[in-house]
Input
Amino acid sequence: MRIDVISIFPEYFAPLDVSLMGKARAKGILDVRLHQLREWAHDVHKTVDDTPYGGGPGMVMKPEIWGAAIDDVIGEGSPRLVVPTPSGRPFTQAVALEYAAEPWLLFAPARYEGIDSRVMIEYGSRLRLDEVSIGDYVLAGGEAAVLVMIEAVARLLPGVLGNAVSAVDDSFAPGAMENLLEGPVFTKPPVWRGHEVPEVLLSGHHGKIARWRRDEALRRTLLKRPELIERGELSAADLKAIASFRADGDPVAD
Ligand code: ADE
Output
């Protein structure tokens, strides 16, 4: 997959050299190209922003500079253009999966009060454009959001996670885990500071372990993210598990 990022802080993306993403790049699975937006600014100060029409605080990024940068980076091609903004649609695991199926993504993170909106109108008509938010809070710029999205997407690319590891059991993974949080995990020793590993995990009984994991995912989701649970998608065994948490007086939501 090719990923281009145009930013006034390309150095912000140094973490892409590390760990899973560093390896994916070394293996050629991920081809990340960073571009300094100021290279498309031609005045002495390499100015990329200006005061907002209509007044108000902060600065807005200039459309000509973004336009020239995007045109040069895409050439004749047509990547999916992703603009991070707190006013975008929510970035979820489903969106990460959608992006992982694309051959080419172009990220355009803004600083200041954002990019002149005509840039989104222009490229929204020429490319598939998404304005995306990584959560209901405001960052100082879109760069951290781009790092988050690249990591979520890159780990889904074939060959990035080790063979033994799979994304299908992740929280939110489509399928059985779609609306569930993953439950707790344990490793050796079996007793640590008096805390025991749940016995079923030591039993070697795969069916019982799978059921236990599912029950714990349900329990955790009901406790921490009750809005995720959609009854229609739960099996009879799931509903029975939920009823028994309630009967046991577990602090779960109705
Ligand atoms: N830029 C600033 N805040 C953001 C957010 N929450 N998501 C995406 N981009 C942003």
User: Anything to note?
Assistant: The radius of gyration is 23 Å. The chain has a mean pLDDT of 93. Residues 84-86, 133-135, 137-139, 142, 145 surround adenine (CB under 6 Å).
